[in-house]
Structures are given as structure tokens and as C-alpha cells.
Design a protein that fits this description.
Blueprint: H1 11-14, H2 19-29, H3 34-41, H4 60-71, E1 78-79, H5 92-99, H6 102-105, H7 117-134, E2 138-139, H8 146-159, E3 168-172, H9 177-190, E4 193-197, E5 208-215, H10 226-234, E6 238-243, H11 254-257, E7 261-265, E8 281-285, E9 297-302, E10 308-313, H12 319-322, H13 335-372, E11 377-378, E12 386-390, H14 395-404, E13 407-408, E14 410-412, E15 415-419, H15 426-438, H16 449-454, H17 482-493, H18 516-519, H19 525-528, H20 540-557, E16 561-563, H21 569-586, E17 594-598, H22 604-611, E18 615-619, H23 629-638, E19 643-649, H24 661-670, E20 674-678, H25 691-694, E21 698-700, E22 721-723, H26 759-792, E23 798-799, E24 811-814, H27 825-834, E25 841-842, E26 849-852, H28 860-881, H29 899-902, H30 913-917, H31 922-925, H32 939-942, H33 951-956
Parallel strand pairs: 1-13, 3-4, 3-5, 5-6, 6-7, 17-18, 17-19, 19-20, 20-21
Antiparallel strand pairs: 2-8, 7-8, 9-10, 11-12, 12-15, 14-15, 16-22, 21-22, 23-24, 24-26, 25-26
Helix pairs in contact: 2-26, 3-26, 4-26, 5-13, 5-17, 7-13, 8-9, 13-15, 20-26, 21-22, 23-24, 26-28
Bound molecules: pyridoxal-5'-phosphate.
Pyridoxal-5'-phosphate binds at residues 331-332, 508, 568-570, 602, 604, 649, 653, 678, 680, 702, 717, 719.
Enzyme class: oxidoreductase
GO molecular function: glycine binding; glycine dehydrogenase (decarboxylating) activity; pyridoxal phosphate binding
Protein name: Glycine dehydrogenase (decarboxylating)
Length: 957
């Protein structure tokens, strides 16, 4: 059909600049064609020989049709599997206005607090929910999943243990198997012994440093641990409890009976199962551990006008500052999902949640009595939502009949476990009962539901019935009508700058377009409604999706196979290093524990290496930002006998394609090490070169950077790893669902395929771009970056560039000289807010600089607007340099300016209100107002408040 030639390409929607704009940018750069620029930028020795071999690009409509076909291969049965994942009712007002709303999902981690107060408040609400429900003092703003949260807790309690000779973590044998699997992985690197046993005092031997309990137990029953907890503490040991958040509405919170840490999943608070994720895990502990907590904590502080403001607190614990000494490697977490869970709590309030939990418990009891009346034995004397029946010879027939009725139960030998959730109805209980009746030749008419209902009393031990109040703060008691809720959500959203407003030029973070067509399938029931442990024959759609993505990403990375278990880039790093470790071990190399890491590496690299039990040796960088090859060679040779690996980011975090990368890989291999490539900068490689081609052995991809999963205000993400052939056998396995072979390492995530439901976003992106489209995206990203460089380099020195003076997909603007006149890089970052922009990455990888990454998705018009803003700010600095304007009393130091400040009756500043708020003309058409003035960074750390404060509390602090 050669006559029908117009076919709209998704590529032209994803890539920002029009052809006219591309030509304008090329002439600004003095090159004739994009390929000429690429030749000047990407070293010829690493260029891919062949074009990407991927299926032809699909239009948006064609993709959505295909995605529907794939989705329909998933069978959405009613899930009673439980074991940490439950079906939910996601309130429409949250689904549409948060989960499906780019105003919430396209934001970045709230480093720039003044334009992030909305999500900071929602995350503070989350922390309040968690501290209230767990009965502990302090909570973080989410971890990746329950199992990794448990592993973080194990490590924290291990590091803080009193008896340094103790190295055993006593784990309840009735903890969830996926959690135990992840604990095994984490224990290896530190020589921690896991004792998986019953939790009895006789097991509290002297070598135990802490105990891990599940509450309610994995089998659904509930034990009163109070006396045991006292015994643990009497021995100087500590306790971590994995708790079911919903159950805590009815049960005495673990914090009240002695838990030192409580972890769990907040999925039950309105977040779909999504075949394993994403969901926000929680981590709560005592105030005494506040400096040891993994991940992000939101805290209360005040702004420059003395008003209430929020920010991320105690960042000195985190990987980007403490590196290999960090409390964990967490960078991307699960912000969006924590925000959703917090809104669920806001919408339902304390009574609403209690009603939901009580209804779940009542229905579980109804089922218990109804099925018992048929003559079955129910094995849990106490329970919240899970009943357990002995089936004897009927096990097989029950399973078959349940499947006939499109229901999944949790089977274990001759026992069946059934977990009730928020979606369960009376009719569902009847259907389940009918199945139990049928297999023993009875019918529903044999069951007296009225009697069963009358028998409902309490299945929770009297001494464990919750007495304490929760969610008493007005925020959880004010927005229960949909209108109130809608407006509350929107009022917070309006405080946050997202990709809906302007480009977010964060270097290393790749804030590109998250296209609507990529997002649409995520909330389809056929992707959202699947339990991660659903029977394989119900998940063919997912298997196809994951299989295709595996093939495509293998082609893109030049590797043999991918693992989709890691939930973030940092988890990918950790997984990759553990795979390398297993490889060395398999060859009898038990001593290889040295990991070389360039000084410019991202903080997660050393933090992950340390988590993997490796010793970090830092390799120098030269004046051009490249790895100092001589230093690398010397250190590789010095440590040859113990060399484990090199972690290297490519192109480098300095935004340069190092010419020596192939040689670097060869040096490491020659000395017995493996090359771990940090793939965060893959956006500069796709289609032009690849980690496999360059010579790396493992690489993670941040699907939330290069492959269009939105950042969600600090997560979710996915960090799958690709490996060369020799490492394939060691890819992570999973206790419940086989994902690798016999030699595979233990699990790194709770779910076999991590946050599986968002994989569809990357699948969509690749399918709609095709090989050429992806390659063009890379080229456009490089073009956009070089265009910005050309516009800004006369105003700001650009640190580092390649041999032809080109940068890769990002560049570093040096702001250190402005310190001479008192201007800090933070002042520029804050002043950019007045111009309607989010700052580039501040002080990474070089202190006192800004790292700019435009991505391919920005048009030239947007790049120009951004450059105009930075140039105008440079002129503001010049006025200070010339002495025309005071060094302390100026528009930069007072930035950002709120509407309240600018419109106040009193105005005493040395510059005009116009200068403060509307310094460039484009702002008149559209102005984004920061909701608070400059936040006080130190106050919030001095007095840590990390749950919603009452007005009185806040005034006292
Ligand atoms: C973003 C980033 C990481 C960490 O990835 P997460 O997904 O946030 O854990 C690691 N290295 C580099 C260079 C990065 O930019």
C-alpha cells in the first residue's frame, strides 16, 4: 500500500524538537547533520556495528490494541492467596487524580523542597499512618517491598547490636517464604547466620542478636508475643516484626508490645497487587535509631518567612552523602505508592479503616463457621483475615473446583489457606463455601449462614484487641466526602512542580516524556489485578510481556539475559554484585572482595558494594573527568588476587564518553575482576553502543530513567539487570516462583518480577519507538544537550567534554566561582523556581555545580526558555560581581519568592516585585508559584518531627 504513506509515528511525539528545530540546533552547533555530531561525540571504537534488531514501531493505537491482546491472556481470578498481597478497592478519586495523573506521577524526588510541598505533605501523612498503626516513634517515607524492608531491618539491628560477637538472626519459621528468601541473600555478605525456627525462648541462644516475627503469622494465626518480647529484651536482643498494616487497625500495635522495628507492605491501602508491585513498604522504629534508618525521611521545618514547611530530613545518613558508610543504598523508593496509601487513609479516616478491617475479619469468621458447619476443621484458633482448613483426601478436588470457579487459594499439602480482603463480599463467601460443599457431595442448602453469622464473635485474642487510637490528626478526619478529597488532592498537587509545568533538567535522572499511551495499560485490571504467586497458566500475558521485554532489552544492552527482580537501580547494583560474587565463588574464588569505584560514582555504587560485603577502593579521576587509567591499572594490579569488580558508569557521571572504556574493561578482566556497568546513563547509549559491546559483564537499567517509567516523586522504578552469558546461571531465583536455575542466587525482591505492572510502560515505549526511533531518541538527547551547552558555555563554564568539545547527554555547569561574591549553587537552584524551573542536579558529581540533562523529549522552544532563565540569572550574578547589587541583600538570596511575599503590603527589598516574580516575559503567560520560601535545612534536623504535628507541637518546636 505504497500510496497510503502517511502514518503518524509515535517517535515524533516522544522526541521533542521538530525537524525545523533540529536544523536550527545543528546550525548553532556548526554541524550539517545529526550523525556528524554523533560521530564527534561517541568514540568510533565503541560504536555498534549493526542497527538494533527490534520489531517495527507501532503507532499508539496499534500498541494499545496489542497490549489489550496481551493483557487478555492474563486471567484475573479472585485471589485469596494472601501471603502479603491482597486485592483492594482503589477509590476512583485516588486512581484518577493520583495514580493516573501526571501531576503526581511525573515528579522527581523532593530534593527541591520549596516546589515539592504537596508530595512532602502526602509522604509526611504516610509516615504518620505508619507510626500510628505500628505504635512506633518514627517511620521513613517508604521502602521497596516488605522483604527488602525486613533485610534492611536485619542489617540495622545487626549494626547496632550490643553484643558484637552475636551474629545470628532468629527468624520465625512462619514468616512469609519470600521474606526469608530475601533475608538469606542479605545475610550472606555479612556472615549473618539465619536461624529459621520456632520463636521460643529456648531458641534465644547467646549468638542471637535479634529476632524476626511475623504478625499475624504466615499461616494467619495470631500469637501474643508480649512475654517473649520481654525475654528477648532481657537478653539485650532486639525485635523486628513484619506486620500486616490493615490488621493493625484491630490488633495491638507491635510497638506497644515491644517491637524495635516494624516493617511491612502498605499495598492493602488501596494499591493494586500488580503481579507483585509497585507498592510502598514501610519501616518504623524507635527514635533511638533515627540516624540508622534506611531510606528517606520527611521532616517538618520552617521557611524563610517563618512558616511551616517540609523537607527531607537527616540526609547525612543517605548514600549520596555517606556512600559506602550509608545506612542503606536506597535511592529510588516507592513514593507514589506511599502517597496513594496515605490518601487512602485520609479518605477513609480512622473509622473508615476500622470498618474495612472489621468487615474483613467478620467475613473471615463467617467463612470459618460456614465451612466448619460442613464438617471441615479450621486450624487457626485466632486470626485476622486468614482461615486455614484441613482437607485430607479432598485437597486435589478442592483445588480443581476452586479453579472452576475462578478462585485461587493458598495450598500447602493437605491444608488450604484463604485470605479475605476488602473486595470480598457475602456472595464470595457463599461461592467459596459452595466449593467446599460440592467436593463432599453437599450443597449450599446444607449451610445455615444465619447461624454462621450469629457465631461471629472475635477471632482476635482478647489481650491483643487494639485499645489505642490512631489517625487522630485532623488531616485524617476532614476529607471523607469525594469533593473534599478531590480538593485536598488537588491542593497538594498544585504545590508541586512536575513535568506538567516545565522540563526537569536533572542530570543523571533522565526526566523524559512518560507518554499517556505507555501509562494507560498500567491500571487495566488484567495487569493490576494479578497476585504475584498466581498459578502460571493464569499469567501468560505477563509472561509474554516479560519475555518480549527480556528479548528487546537484551538486544539493546548486548547481553544474554535480563532479571526483572530488582525494584530500583540501586537494587539492580546489589543484585548484579551478588551475581558476580556467586560467579567468583563457583570458580573457587572465595576471597575476591575488592570493588574499584571511580571517585565520581553515584552514591548508590559504593553503598551497594558495601551491602554486598565488598571493600570499596576509590579510583581517581583526571582533570578531564575521565577515570585515571594509570591509577585504575595500578589498583587493579595491586588487588589482582582479591579483585572482585569495577563499577563504572558510562558515559561517565561527568557526561563524557570516555575513550578508554574498552581498555578499562580489559584491565579489570586481566586482573580477574568483572565489570559492573551502572546503566543510569543508558539514554546516551541506546542504539549507538551497548554495555555488552563495550565489554561489561553486568549492567542495570533504570527503566524509570531511560525507558519511560515515570519517577513518581521518588519511585516507583525498576532496575532489571542484564548479564553476559557466563553469569546467566547466577541470576536471582525466587522461593515461590522459579525465575532462575539451581545456581541462581537467592531472591533480591519479594516478588519474582519486582514491580511487574510497570514493565508495561517500558514495553510500550520500545514497541512504539522501534529500533530506529530509539536510536533517534539517543541522538536527539545528545543533540539537545550539546545545544544547551552551546548556548550556556559563554555564561557558565562547562566542566569536562569529550575530545571534540562535545558532551554526551548531559553536562556540568560550574558555579563554584560565584562563591567569591557569596552566591552558592543552591541560590541559583532556588532562583530557578522563580523562573518556573526545577533545578538541575545540584552538587553531583562535583560539589558546587549543576548537572543538566535535557533528554530528547524537550523541544528547542523549551530548551531556549530554560537557557534564557539561566542566562538571566547569570546576569543577576554579574550585577553582584560588579558591585551594583549587594552580596547578601539580593534576588538570589531571597529566592524563591512566594505570592504572599510578592503581594504583601510591605515591600522593603532592594529589587522590584516584578524582578522577583516576573523576571522574564514568558512568565506572564504562565507562572508557577513556589508555595513556601527557602526552607531551613538545619532546623528540621536539629528537632526531628516526622509525623503530622499538631499546631501546638509545631509551635513548641
Ligand atoms: C539514578 C542513579 C542510580 C540509582 O538508581 P535508583 O533507581 O534511584 O536506585 C545509580 N547510579 C546513577 C549514575 C544514577 O543516576
Amino acid at each position: 500500500m505504497s500510496k497510503i504513506h502517511f502514518q503518524e509515528k509515535f517517535e515524533s511525539r516522544h522526541n521533542g524538537p521538530s525537524q525545523v528545530e533540529v536544523n536550527e540546533m545543528l546550525s548553532a552547533l556548526g554541524v550539517d547533520a545529526v550523525d556528524q555530531l554523533i560521530d564527534q561525540t561517541v568514540p568510533s571504537q565503541i560504536r555498534a556495528k549493526n542497527a538494533l534488531n527490534l520489531p517495527a514501531a507501532l503507532s499508539e493505537t496499534a500498541y494499545l490494541k496489542r497490549a489489550k491482546q496481551i493483557a487478555e491472556k492474563n486471567k484475573v481470578f479472585k485471589s485469596y492467596i494472601g501471603q502479603g498481597y491482597y486485592d483492594v478497592i482503589l477509590p476512583g478519586v485516588i486512581q484518577r487524580n493520583v495514580f493516573e495523573n501526571p501531576g503526581w506521577y511525573t515528579q522527581y524526588t523532593p530534593y527541591q523542597a520549596e516546589i515539592a510541598q504537596g508530595r512532602l505533605q502526602a509522604l509526611l501523612n504516610f509516615q504518620t499512618v505508619i507510626t500510628d498503626f505500628t505504635g512506633l516513634e518514627i517511620a521513613n517515607a517508604s521502602l521497596l517491598d516488605e522483604a527488602t524492608a525486613a533485610a534492611e531491618a536485619m542489617f540495622m539491628l545487626y549494626s547496632a547490636r550490643k553484643n558484637k560477637a552475636a551474629n545470628t538472626f532468629l527468624v520465625s519459621e512462619k514468616a512469609f517464604p519470600q521474606t526469608i528468601d530475601v533475608l538469606k541473600t542479605r545475610a550472606i555478605s555479612f556472615g549473618i547466620e539465619l536461624k529459621i525456627a520456632s520463636v521460643s525462648e529456648s531458641n534465644l541462644t547467646d549468638d542471637v542478636f535479634a529476632v524476626f516475627l511475623q504478625y499475624p503469622l504466615g499461616d494467619g494465626s495470631i500469637i501474643d508475643y508480649k512475654a517473649f518480647a520481654d525475654a528477648v529484651h532481657a537478653k539485650g536482643m532486639t525485635i523486628c516484626v513484619a506486620a500486616d498494616l490493615m490488621s493493625l487497625a484491630l490488633l495491638t500495635p507491635p510497638g506497644e508490645w515491644g517491637a524495635d522495628v516494624v516493617v511491612g507492605n502498605s499495598q492493602r491501602f488501596g494499591v493494586p497487587m500488580g503481579f507483585g508491585g509497585p507498592h510502598a513498604a514501610f519501616f518504623a522504629t524507635k527514635d533511638a535509631y533515627k540516624r540508622n534508618i534506611p531510606g528517606r525521611i520527611i521532616g517538618v521545618t520552617s521557611d524563610s518567612n517563618g512558616n511551616y514547611a517540609l523537607r527531607m530530613a537527616l540526609q547525612t545518613r543517605e548514600q549520596h552523602i555517606r556512600r559506602d558508610k550509608a545506612s542503606s543504598n536506597i535511592c529510588t523508593a516507592q513514593a507514589l505508592l506511599a502517597i496513594m496509601a496515605s490518601f487512602y487513609a485520609v479518605y477513609h479516616g480512622p473509622q473508615g479503616i476500622k470498618n474495612i478491617a472489621s468487615r474483613i475479619n467478620d467475613l473471615a469468621q463467617l467463612l470459618d463457621h460456614a465451612v466448619q458447619s460442613l464438617g471441615y476443621t479450621q486450624l487457626n484458633k485466632t486470626y485476622f483475615d486468614t482461615v486455614r482448613f484441613e482437607l485430607g483426601e479432598h485437597a486435589g478436588s478442592l483445588k480443581a473446583e476452586a479453579l472452576n470457579n475462578e478462585m485461587n487459594f493458598n495450598y500447602n499439602g493437605t491444608e488450604v489457606k484463604i485470605s479475605i480482603d476488602e473486595t470480598t463480599t457475602f456472595e464470595d463467601i457463599q461461592t467459596i463455601t459452595k466449593v467446599f460443599a460440592k467436593i463432599i457431595g453437599k450443597t449450599l442448602s446444607d449451610v445455615d449462614f444465619d447461624a454462621a453469622e450469629k457465631a461471629i464473635s472475635s477471632s482476635i485474642p482478647a489481650e491483643l484487641v487494639r485499645q489505642s487510637a490512631y489517625l487522630t490528626h485532623p488531616i485524617f478526619n476532614s476529607y471523607h466526602s469525594e469533593h473534599e478529597m478531590l480538593r485536598y488532592i488537588k491542593s497538594l498537587e498544585a504545590k508541586d512542580l512536575s513535568l506538567c509545568h516545565s522540563m526537569i533538567p536533572l542530570g543523571s535522572c533522565t526526566m523524559k516524556l512518560n507518554a499517556t499511551a505507555e501509562m494507560v495499560p498500567v491500571t487495566w485490571a488484567q495487569f493490576g489485578g494479578l497476585h504475584p504467586f498466581a498459578p502460571l497458566d493464569q499469567t501468560s500475558g505477563y509472561m509474554q510481556l516479560i519475555g518480549e521485554l527480556n528479548d528487546w532489552l537484551s538486544e539493546i544492552t548486548g547481553f544474554a539475559k535480563m532479571s526483572f527482580q530488582p525494584n530500583s537501580g540501586a537494587q539492580g547494583e546489589y543484585a548484579g554484585l551478588m551475581v558476580i560474587r556467586a560467579y567468583h565463588e563457583s570458580r573457587g574464588d572465595h576471597n575476591r572482595n575488592i570493588c574499584l569505584i571511580p571517585a565520581s560514582a553515584h552514591g548508590t555504587n559504593p553503598a551497594s558494594a558495601s551491602m554486598a560485603g565488598l571493600k570499596v577502593v576509590v579510583v581517581k579521576c583526571d582533570d578531564f573527568g575521565n577515570i585515571d587509567v594509570a591509577d585504575l591499572k595500578a589498583k587493579a594490579e595491586e588487588h589482582a588476587a582479591n579483585l572482585n569488580s569495577l563499577m563504572v558508569t558510562y558515559p561517565s557521571t561527568h557526561g563524557v564518553f570516555e575513550e578508554s572504556i574498552i581498555e578499562i574493561c580489559e584491565i579489570i578482566h586481566a586482573n580477574g575482576g568483572q565489570v559492573y556497568m551502572d546503566g543510569a546513563n543508558m539514554n546516551a547509549q541506546v542504539g549507538l553502543t551497548s554495555p555488552g559491546h563495550i565489554g561489561a559483564d553486568v549492567c542495570h537499567l533504570n527503566l524509570h530513567k531511560t525507558f519511560c517509567i515515570p519517577h513518581g516523586g521518588g519511585g516507583p522504578g525498576m532496575g532489571p539487570i542484564g548479564v553476559a552469558k557466563h553469569l546467566v546461571p547466577f541470576l536471582p531465583n525466587h522461593e515461590v516462583v522459579e525465575t532462575s536455575g539451581e545456581e541462581g542466587i537467592h531472591a533480591v525482591s519479594a516478588a519474582p518480577f519486582g514491580s511487574a505492572s510497570i514493565l508495561v510502560i517500558s514495553h510500550a515505549y520500545i514497541a512504539m519507538m522501534g529500533g530506529d526511533g530509539l536510536t533517534n531518541a539517543t541522538k536527539t538527547a545528545i543533540l539537545n544537550a550539546n545545544y544547551i551547552k552551546s548556548r550556556l558555555e559563554n555564561h557558565y563554564p562547562v566542566l569536562y567534554s569529550g575530545i571534540n568539545g562535545r558532551c554526551a547527554h548531559e553536562m556540568i555547569l560550574d558555579c563554584r566561582n560565584f562563591k567569591n561574591v557569596g552566591v552558592e549553587v543552591a541560590d541559583i537552584a532556588k532562583r530557578l523556581m522563580d523562573y518556573g524551573f526545577h533545578a538541575p542536579t545540584v552538587s553531583f558529581p562535583v560539589a558546587g555545580t549543576l548537572m543538566v540533562e535535557p533528554t530528547e523529549s524537550e523541544s528547542k522552544a523549551e530548551l531556549d526558555r530554560f537557557c534564557d532563565a539561566l542566562i538571566a540569572i547569570r546576569q543577576e550574578i554579574a550585577a553582584i560581581e560588579s558591585g551594583e547589587i549587594d552580596q547578601t541583600e539580593n534576588v538570589l538570596k531571597h529566592a524563591p519568592h512566594t505570592a504572599a511575599v510578592v503581594t504583601a503590603d510591605e515591600w522593603t527589598r532592594s529589587y522590584s516585585r516584578q524582578t522577583a516574580a516576573y523576571p522574564l516575559d514568558y512568565l506572564k503567560a504562565h507562572k508557577f508559584w513556589p508555595s513556601v520560601g527557602r526552607v531551613n535545612e538545619s532546623q528540621g534536623d536539629r528537632t526531628l518531627i516526622c509525623s503530622c504535628p499538631s499546631i501546638e507541637e509545631y509551635m513548641e518546636a
